[in-house]
Design a protein that fits this description.
The chain is an alpha/beta fold. It folds into 3 domains: 4-174, Thiamin diphosphate (ThDP)-binding fold, Pyr/PP domains (Rossmann fold); 194-324, Rossmann fold, CATH 3.40.50; 349-523, Thiamin diphosphate (ThDP)-binding fold, Pyr/PP domains (Rossmann fold), CATH 3.40.50.970. Helix content is 37%, strand content 17%. It contains 22 helices and 18 strands. The chain has helices spanning 13-23, 38-46, 58-72, 82-88, 90-99, 112-115, 125-129, 142-156, 170-174, 197-203, 220-233, 262-269, 313-324, 349-359, 377-380, 400-410, 422-425, 431-438, 453-461, 469-474, 484-490, 501-513, and strands spanning 28-32, 51-54, 76-80, 103-109, 135-138, 163-169, 209-213, 236-239, 246-248, 256-257, 274-278, 302-307, 364-369, 387-391, 416-421, 442-448, 495-498, 518-523. A 7-stranded mixed beta sheet has the order 9-14-13-15-16-18-17, sandwiched between helices. A 6-stranded parallel beta sheet has the order 2-1-3-4-6-5, sandwiched between helices. A 5-stranded parallel beta sheet has the order 10-8-7-11-12, covered by helices on one side. Helix 3 (58-72) packs parallel to helix 5 and helix 3 (58-72) crosses helix 16 (400-410). It is globular, with a radius of gyration of 24 Å. Belongs to the TPP enzyme family. It comes from Sedimentitalea xiamensis. This is Acetolactate synthase large subunit. Keywords: Thiamine pyrophosphate, Transferase. Residues 11-116 form the Thiamine pyrophosphate enzyme N-terminal TPP-binding domain.
Length: 524
């Protein structure tokens, strides 16, 4: 870039934004543009370096940006069309926000002179963005766009990762007053609570104490430190129920999770009188249930919040290791390689887990939106080949396929294995088309139980006994059955339908051997 490139009047606002994003390290855009974003689209031709990945639904674009951040550790941008386009992407922005993923949303807006006319697509974009964003700003002129873009990246890079939404009126994109802005440094991770270290060290003493981890505390290196602390103190070691990214497999410290079902979670936490939080929140239930607790820890449990999700989690764990004398102790909980027998018979959660233990390839990325089917997958796959495991942290379904797109975009040299319930997959099945277009190395396993199985269980959990046929029908995905192989083939992806565990293993291995996307419909 020359000095002349940075002077006002040499480019339009859209081009200045693309150049600024690239200068700030944002080189990937998941897009679903419309008329108001056409100057940004045109700028992609004029400015080399920005990869644009087209999505056929905005929820795929936002979910892909979430998966990208989890694996690349830097933000991508999305390109969305006005208020309705942003609204279509909100559910996966919610999931990304809960996961601590950094995303820069570029949302087109009408020109200032057109807003007062109340055209059909006019909407309160800032109001729509606010609940799912940490930072929202509207550019006022082409000269402002570059600087606004740099600040948006800064906001997105604020630890642990934040959602930044920049609203770009079309006249600020087309006017020829653009200025490229220099990157704005993002703040580093905040210090952990130094005053709580002594209390936390004293609390981690014996089997009735727990070290509860979340966020960036779940890297391979930080889990090694946590395993040393557990070995030195005898404390328990758990993670939150949902984790943005967990490094696991043979040779790594295995960490269990707080269970999702309320009764199981209460039972799992009942024995812990003292709990130290590093990157995690104190455990609570996903929902309120009649006659059941929302706070999952025992009465009068001592909760010590040493470090929040945006804090220096490595430093916090190092301080605990120093305080407990764990530095020279071998870590406990190292997962040994498993020699799991090949399963036979019907496809069940147990046989699926055994298949996964045998078939997860080394350095794979597993995207897990198996919801009910996958609740026992982690213990059974503890000794699988080393891999990364991504969960849905926000609870809004339709997360898995888009996140797989983003993970594959960030890590094209790694196999991606997406484990998705059929009900969840229907929310964002357009992601399959993007996988085919980009020839991404994603093997999808769709668990076809033909129902919203999680809601069948929740019907009982909220106190509904003996539900009638109308209630059950509302939670069923038959009449007609979904044809996943036919739908995938219509979007350019081949696959196969399997009906037993042995065939499932063969299909997964075949899919992983394909250079490109592959879909398996596992009939349950």
């Amino acid at each position: 870039m020359t000095d002349q490139d940075t002077r006002a009047g040499t480019m339009n606002g859209a081009e200045s934004l693309v150049r600024t994003l690239l200068a700030s390290g944002v080189d990937t855009c998941f897009s679903n543009p419309g008329t108001s974003e056409m100057h940004f689209v045109a700028a992609l031709d004029h400015v080399p370096g920005m990869r644009s990945v087209l999505a056929l639904f905005e929820g795929v674009a936002t979910g892909a940006a979430d998966g990208y951040f989890r694996m690349a550790r830097k933000p991508a941008c999305t390109l969305l069309h006005l208020g309705p386009g942003l609204a279509n992407g909100l559910a996966n922005l919610h999931n990304a926000k809960k996961a601590g993923s950094g995303i820069v949303n570029i949302v087109g807006e009408h020109a200032a002179s057109h807003i007062e006319l109340d055209a059909p697509l006019t909407a309160d974009i800032a109001g729509i963005a606010a609940p799912m964003s940490h930072w929202v700003h509207t550019s006022e002129s082409a000269a402002d766009v570059g600087g606004d873009g740099a600040r948006a990246v800064q906001a997105a890079m604020t630890p642990p990762g934040r959602i930044a939404t920049l609203i770009l009126p079309s006249d600020t994109a087309w006017n020829e007053d653009g200025v490229v802005a220099a990157p704005v440094p993002a703040p580093g991770r905040a210090p952990f609570d130094q005053k709580a270290v002594g209390k936390a060290v004293a609390a981690l003493d014996g089997a009735d104490s727990l070290l509860l981890l979340g966020g960036a505390a779940l890297t391979e290196e930080n889990l090694q430190t946590a395993g040393r602390i557990a070995a030195a103190t005898g404390c328990g070691l758990l993670s939150e129920w949902s984790n943005a990214r967990l490094e696991r497999g043979a040779g790594r410290v295995f960490i269990g999770k707080v269970p999702y079902p309320i009764d199981q979670a209460v039972a799992a936490l009942e024995g812990f009188r003292r709990i130290v939080l590093v990157g995690a929140r104190a455990p609570i239930g996903f929902f309120a249930y009649p006659g059941k607790p929302a706070v999952l820890t025992r009465d009068r449990a001592e909760i010590i919040a040493l470090a929040g999700a945006g804090d220096d989690l490595t430093g916090a764990l190092d301080a605990l290791a120093d305080g407990t004398g764990a530095r020279s102790v071998a870590p406990s909980g190292l997962a040994a390689p498993q020699d799991t027998a090949r399963p036979n018979g019907a496809i069940t959660p147990e046989t699926i887990a055994a298949v996964l233990a045998r078939s997860i390839p080394e350095n794979a990325i597993v995207v897990d939106e198996s919801v009910t089917t996958g609740r026992t997958f982690l213990p059974a796959t503890a000794g699988a080949a080393p891999h990364s495991w991504l969960n849905n942290c926000g609870g809004s379904i339709g997360f898995g396929l888009p996140v797989a797109v983003g993970a594959a975009t960030a890590c094209p040299d790694r196999k991606v294995l997406a484990l998705i319930g059929d009900g969840s997959a229907m929310y964002t099945l357009q992601a399959i088309w993007t996988m085919a277009r980009e020839q991404q190395d994603v093997t999808m396993v769709i668990f076809a139980n033909r129902s919203y199985a999680i809601l069948r269980g929740e019907l009982t959990n909220v106190g509904v006994q003996n539900p009638g046929p109308r209630a059950v029908d509302m939670l069923s995905l038959n009449r007609p059955d979904l044809g996943w192989i036919e739908m995938a083939r219509g979007m350019g992806v081949e696959g196969q339908r399997v009906e037993d565990a042995a065939a499932l293993e063969e299909a997964i291995l075949a899919g992983l051997d394909v250079d490109g996307p592959y879909l398996i419909e596992a009939m349950m």
